Amino acid sequence: MSVASQDTAVKTGSIAKVFIYLILVLFALFYLLPLYVMLTNSLKPLSEITGGDMMSLPKAWTIEAWLSAWSTAQVGVSPTGLRPYFINSILMVVPAVAISTVLGALNGYILTKWRFRGDTLLFGLMLFACFIPFQIVLIPMARILGILGIAGSTQGLVLVHVVYGIGFSTLYFRNYYASFPTELVRAAMIDGAGFFRIFWRIMLPVSGPIAVVTIIWQFTNIWNDFLFGASFAGLSAMPMTVALNNLVNSSTGVREYNVHFAGAIMAALPTLLVYIVAGRFFVRGLMAGSVKG
Amino acid sequence: MGFLDISHVSKAYGSVQVLHEVDISVEEGEFIVLVGPSGCGKSTLMNMIAGLEPITTGDISIRGRLMNGVHPSKRNIAMVFQSYALYPNMTVAQNMTFGLEMHGVPKAERDRLLADVARLLQIDHLLERKPGHLSGGQRQRVAMGRALVRNPDVFLFDEPLSNLDAKLRVDMRTEIKKLHQKLGTTIVYVTHDQIEALTLSTRIAVMNKGYIQQLGTPKEIYDTPANLFVATFMGSPAMNILPATIKVRDGVAFAEIADAQGRLQSLQFSQKNLASWDGKEILLGIRPEAITDIDGADRKSQNIQRFSNVVTVIEPAGSDTFVTMTVSGRDVVARMRADASVAARDRFEFAVNMDKAVVFDPKTEARIPG
Ligand SMILES: Nc1ncnc2c1ncn2[C@@H]1O[C@H](COP(=O)(O)OP(=O)(O)OP(=O)(O)O)[C@@H](O)[C@H]1O
Ligand SMILES: [Mg+2]
Q1: Which of A153, B100, B150, B300 is the most exposed place for a label (fewest CB within 10 A)?
Q2: Global pTM?
Q3: Do the interacting molecules here have an ipTM over 0.90?
């Protein structure tokens, strides 16, 4: 890929090249600036922030703020730190991502390989899920969670995110499977494989790229969600995003900026990690889909 | 009742009728080729035999067992697809034994069958590779191997050679024919290549627009095509079709045709039953190899007619030379020996083998049987 892009790249003079790289570096620095501010200030004692300037490196390095944000800081009414809420978020995001991805794959498989009357219409309706603004469903969803008896719980949040996520995951998998040769499914039928066997043995093994795309997409959206978390989670199920907000807004005298910075980085770390680990596949998966589909 | 019976089978997609009352009865061990232009319904018929498409009306049975509604895996058939349809995530060995595994054949038995077939097709050394790392010809063999290990009642081939280059296609054609002679399994084979049809089959079903136009041995199809469509579709170069008037003198029928300068000449028919057509227009069908120079004429023929005409173009093609001329306003191709002494724009004396001529009714386009 890199060879091809080098060959096809327009030849530019060396002065222009220096100029281009200069601009790129400037942009990169600009984008990295917030991260720099957060990181350095989370490693300073509070006095250095309130007394000095935000941009300087810490004079006395300390991880005090991180420890506090993790386990002792005041979040809302209790001094628990962010740890319990981090765990809540994990308990919510893992099943929600897993379920919505698996269901999306199954839907995509059915919508492309087991066509039935009205399947296109059904798919069109499912796509609506991608466009409905969150705010519209808040009240009906609260009612449904109440009826199901899972209001305020982690299961309730999982359900909400799965329902919202299926639209996207179905879209991804359907478009990916549309370019998967139907003759393979027919060959497997003649070989005697049934519905699930074909899915498991023939379709899933080649679904790697699109599964990565879906997982990253779902993970980021669900982890970063604030509205559903704030609306539907009780105290015991509160996710990281909401807890972070409470941490920042809990006023017990002085504002501990260093603790806030540390907490914010903690909240962002899992998505960063997912991108770093799976990012290469993410781009590859998007490319594969767009070229073939 | 045959081995594979297709009786009164029709297929409609909504209001579009794509197959009309197809009737084919296949004997055990036959090699039936379905041939026809693109979109004539060959794959549709094939998929109905395989059980991949429901039958709209009519019956299909294999070994006397009615197959309507029976699941593809329970018909004891195997299919080779145009794209080969090899499972990309499995090795060659896994590809070939997947069907056996699904049918609950024990591992030891699977390995034995795999080894047998791999040896037969000479793909032993490829068993651990993935399909992505095989050449077109090798994929083709694996696809056939996957069908063979199942030891099915009927093999279905849907244009298996159309993705190969010309040379490989000829080689694999011979290979398939050898395989059939060795195993004697019943084969239904779809192609739109008429040469494949003529060389491989024991019988050919020529299809057009959802109708079976003619079902017969390659010789029947080639020598006595049922109608104009079959006559022009089968054979390369195509059969010459020219308008002619029938003249009957002393009870003997002649075809009156015009040479390039409009001069009328008569060719005496071998066919005896044309008296009632006296004075009427017909379409005369003559294959290129039935028009030669006089020395090159078929010695076994009872009725060689002479015909003199101006040569338009000469195309030497190695073993043969194709000679084009104008007859009754149409281009006519003659196929001659390479050493025939013909020159363009000269008048030349042709020998026409009228034993091989066929006559079509211009209204119905059906052959007037002799
Ligand atoms: N699902 C479908 N819905 C509507 N029409 C269809 C469908 N599948 C096939 N057809 C039509 O049925 C006709 C026969 O198709 P079929 O695939 O059997 O042709 P074919 O003879 O195999 O052609 P080719 O040589 O191009 O493969 C075509 O006119 C096609 O448009
Ligand atoms: Mg076809």
Answers
A1: B300
A2: 0.80
A3: no
Mutate to test the pocket of ligand 1, among B19, B43, B161 (most ligand atoms within 8 A of CB): B43
Of the partner residues A183, A184, A190, the one whose CB lies closest to the CB of residue B72? A190
In a domain, A108, yes or no: yes
Distances (CA, A) of A128 to A166, A221, B236: 11, 17, 56
In what order do the strands lie in the sheet containing B320-327?
B291-293, B347-353, B304-317, B320-327, B330-337
pLDDT tens digits along A21-68 = 999 999 999 999 988 888 888 888 877 777 777 778 878 888 888 888
Asked if A117 and A232 sit in the same domain, the reply is yes
The single-letter code of the amino acid at A33 is L
Residues A106 and A18 in one domain: no
Do residues A199 and A165 share a domain? Answer: yes
Tally the C-alpha atoms within 13 A of residue A135's C-alpha that lie toward its C-beta: 0
Sheet with strand B240-249: strands edge to edge: B264-268, B252-258, B240-249, B281-286, B358-360
Give the strand pairing for B211-216 and B203-208.
Answer: antiparallel
Q: Is the CB of B11 under 6 A from ligand 1?
A: no
Domain at B4-233, CATH class: alpha beta
Per the DSSP assignment, residues forming a β-bridge with B65 are B62
Burial class (CB in 10 A: 0-12, 13-18, 19+), B161: buried
- Cα distance between residue A197 and residue B364, in whole Å: 53
Would the CB atoms of B73 and A192 count as touching at under 8 Å?
yes
Amino acid at site A146: G
Q: B366 forms bridges with which residues in the sheet?
A: B227
